[in-house]
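Title: Prediction job returns without error message
Component: structure pipeline
Severity: low
Priority: P3
Assignee: unassigned

Description:
Job completed but the reporter wants confirmation the result is attached to the right record. Sequence as submitted:
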Amino acid sequence: MTKKKKNNFKYYNNLINQIQNTRKKNNKNWMDLLRITFKHNPAAAKRVLRKIFNEDKRINKLVKKLTK
């Protein structure tokens, strides 16, 4: 990466926008998957969702340590 690209806001903003659009699509996929699992096996869906939530809490604690 050239020095010009490293300091170019438009370059970074473009990358951020691409990430945002990709995450938006992926979040929709996650929500669709969640609907399907709750429709077909709510008990198992709850167990998996609880595990995801607990891991997210652990990630949040680590991020808090990084941002202090």
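Comment from assignee: result matches the submitted record. The chain has one domain: 3-66.
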